[in-house]
Each structure stands twice: as C-alpha cells, then as structure tokens.
Amino acid sequence: MSQGTDDASLTDMERRLAGWWRELLGVEVVRPEDHFLEIGGNSLMATLLSNRIESELGVEVSMVDLFNTLRDVAALCEQLREELNA
Predict the structure, then answer these.
(1) Which of 70, 86, 82 is nearest to 11 (CA)?
(2) Distance of CA 44 to the CA centre of its chain
(3) Which end of the chain, C or N, has fewer beta carbons within 10 A?
(4) pLDDT at residue number 3
(5) For the CA atoms of 52, 3, 85, 45, what is the dihedral angle to 10 degrees?
C-alpha cells in the first residue's frame, strides 16, 4: 500500500512528519514542497501538530514555523533536535 508519496525521496524526519500531516489533514499525499495551510491545515490542526511534535520529538515548534512546507518544518525539527543534543 502506498505511503502517499515516494518515501525513498524523503528524509526520516520528512517521512515521520508527512505521516502526521496525512493523519491530521485527511490527505493521502504529502510532498516535501507541500505547505501546511495550502493542503488544508488550520490553526487548530497546527496546535495538534505542535503538541505531537513536542511529545514525540521533544522539541517546540512555533505555530508560525508550522505554516511552512514539509521540507522546512522537517529541517527545523532536525535543527532543534541537534541543538538539544549538542
């Protein structure tokens, strides 16, 4: 069964976030260039996503940062995790 995108082209973080986006937004496909708001996200969903990121990844991402592309959100999460572990 398809994961909704070519997962081989995604980083581990992009793959993880894409799954959460698909679940929250009820979409089948999330690409790295997809923008949270443009594919159906709103502030309530962003709050839910922010909470999930914090609980699962241990980093806090602001609402403004979530209103971005999957690629940008994933890169930010990676950066914040690296800073935590530095």
Answers:
(1) 70
(2) 15
(3) N
(4) 44
(5) -20
2-54: pLDDT as tens digits = 444 456 689 999 999 999 999 999 999 999 999 999 999 999 999 999 999 99
CB atoms within 10 A of CB 76: 18
- State the helix-helix crossing angle for 43-57 and 12-25, rounded to 10 degrees: 140
Q: Which of 14, 16, 18 is nearest to 4 (CA)?
A: 18
Which pLDDT score, from 0 to 100, does residue 6 have? Answer: 56
Q: Which two tokens stand for residue 69?
A: 């592309």
Query: Look-up: residue for tokens 């708001």?
Result: 37
CA dist 1 and 74 (Å) reads 24
pTM for this one? Answer: 0.87
